[in-house]
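Long-time lurker, first post. I've been practising inverse folding by hand and with some scripts of my own, and I keep getting stuck on stretches where the structure tokens seem ambiguous. Below is the full token string for one chain I'm working on. Before anyone asks, I'm not after the true native sequence, just a reasonable design that respects the backbone. If someone could post their per-position residues I'd love to compare against what I wrote down in my notebook.
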């Protein structure tokens, strides 16, 4: 991949620079910038500086042109910055005159205005000390421009046509980017295995009538754990499946397992959610606006409790079925779903499960997990498990529910599409990146007609808002 080639190149140049500098030994206490990695993702760009020790740093932004300036105290650069390609939001990284003697000033030339978030990371295999610079585009207003519509890479707008929609399954490939996950004895990285399996699961689910898949991560970049559940929510996911591969110190354990949210963790997460009013509103599908008064807090709690119990029940049912199917294609490490306090499982409103596809620390399983054939088998089993739950217990208002009620299985042609013309008006739930003009184009109507049909006071819409789409 491009990243690999680029890194090799940087390593080569870095090697040369090191050779040249080797003769001139500078101050021993200075922190060295030993490497620079840039990880672009659909949402943000992460820049990571590899350092010889913990950084003492400050930063500020400049506009016209947009730049981020990072000052490192008592530091020097050992990276051939001019060899770095333009990536994500960063067009160039260069050094500039430092404000104090012995310091290092790095300037990041940017493609636009950003909100930077900087934090140091302590050494963790396979890395040493690092400074992480996350750059978020400033024009990140919710449901804003169509350019952000590429958000999670695959946007599956949930169009409700005459009360029938697809079941939406969010597939999360564990780890990514700076976070390799577990690393096998043959150096197979978990983040790579999880992405391949996730892609296969998503493709196979998409081929199922009445089911749509959303990939939470579409490339080699890290997505914050909270952001993963947030993305699933924004896509209106009925289920979030996080895919991983286990690792332990011993090479013996092997086989797959599945995890669901433990109820203790669920309770503490619930408490945290209640303190965040805007989330509460989102969680309740807009009803939260009415419930925010303190006197109604009790009612909100009851509603959330119900939602959480429901989520855990579904998560458990799907895990059980997935394990049953996986047991046919691979060894099971644990035959029953386990309860865990894992961050990615914590959304109280979205049924979630985490699948460990096998032990990457087991040499034989590591080899298998890296093969296309085994990944396909695992993906097929996961899909069969998910499908079995949703065909048997489809959420209300879905095509699968309609098919169950009619007693006839869905044909591929019955899959809901955005262009399905239903008589009269339709409903549309706003997802990230959508604006009135995007929706007007999609539904072949005008912004003015949408404003009228929904009695809007301006053109601002928010995620989760249900809009009436006027009939043609
Ligand atoms: Zn993992």
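-- Answer (accepted) --
I ran through it position by position. Result:
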């Amino acid at each position: 991949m491009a990243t690999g080639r680029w890194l090799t190149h940087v390593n080569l140049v870095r090697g040369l620079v090191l050779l040249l500098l080797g003769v001139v030994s500078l101050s021993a206490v200075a922190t060295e910038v030993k490497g620079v990695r840039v990880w672009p993702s659909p949402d943000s760009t992460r820049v990571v500086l590899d350092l010889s020790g913990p950084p003492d740093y400050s930063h500020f932004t400049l506009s016209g042109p947009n730049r981020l300036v990072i000052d490192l105290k008592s530091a020097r650069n050992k990276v051939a910055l001019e060899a770095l390609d333009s990536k994500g939001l960063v067009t160039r990284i260069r050094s500039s005159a430092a404000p104090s003697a012995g310091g290092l000033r790095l300037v990041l030339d940017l493609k636009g205005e950003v909100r930077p978030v900087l934090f140091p990371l302590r050494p963790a295999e396979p890395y040493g000390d690092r400074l992480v610079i996350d750059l978020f585009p400033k024009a990140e207003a919710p449901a804003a421009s169509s350019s952000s519509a590429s958000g999670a890479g695959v946007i599956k707008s949930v169009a409700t046509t005459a009360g029938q929609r697809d079941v939406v399954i969010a597939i999360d490939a564990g780890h990514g980017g700076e976070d390799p996950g577990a690393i096998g004895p043959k150096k197979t990285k978990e983040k790579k295995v999880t992405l391949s399996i996730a892609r296969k699961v998503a493709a196979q689910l998409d081929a199922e009538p009445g089911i749509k898949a959303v990939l939470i991560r579409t490339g080699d970049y890290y997505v914050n754990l909270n952001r993963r559940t947030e993305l699933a929510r924004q896509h209106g996911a009925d289920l979030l499946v996080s895919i991983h591969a286990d690792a332990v110190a011993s090479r013996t354990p092997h086989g797959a397992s599945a995890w669901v949210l433990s109820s203790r963790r669920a309770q503490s997460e619930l408490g945290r959610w209640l303190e965040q009013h805007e989330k509460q509103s989102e969680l309740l599908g807009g009803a939260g606006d009415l419930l925010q008064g303190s006197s109604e807090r009790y009612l909100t709690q009851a509603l959330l409790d119900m939602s959480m119990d429901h989520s855990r029940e579904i998560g458990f049912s799907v895990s059980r079925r997935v394990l049953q199917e996986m047991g046919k294609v691979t060894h099971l490490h644990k035959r029953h779903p386990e309860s865990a306090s894992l961050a990615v499982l914590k959304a109280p409103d979205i049924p979630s499960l985490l699948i460990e596809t096998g032990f990457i620390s087991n040499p034989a399983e590591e080899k298998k997990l890296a093969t296309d054939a085994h990944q396909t088998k695992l993906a097929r089993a996961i899909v069969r498990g998910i499908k079995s739950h949703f065909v048997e217990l489809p959420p209300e208002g879905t095509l699968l529910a309609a098919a169950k009620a009619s007693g006839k299985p869905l044909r591929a042609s019955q899959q809901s599409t955005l262009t399905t013309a239903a008589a009269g008006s339709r409903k549309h739930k706003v997802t990230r990146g959508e604006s009135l003009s995007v929706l007007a184009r999609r539904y072949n109507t005008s912004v003015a007609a949408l404003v009228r049909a929904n009695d809007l006071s301006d053109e601002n819409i928010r995620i989760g808002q249900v809009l009436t789409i006027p009939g043609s």
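A couple of notes from the structure itself: The mean pLDDT is 79. The longest strand covers residues 31-40. Happy to go over any region you disagree with.
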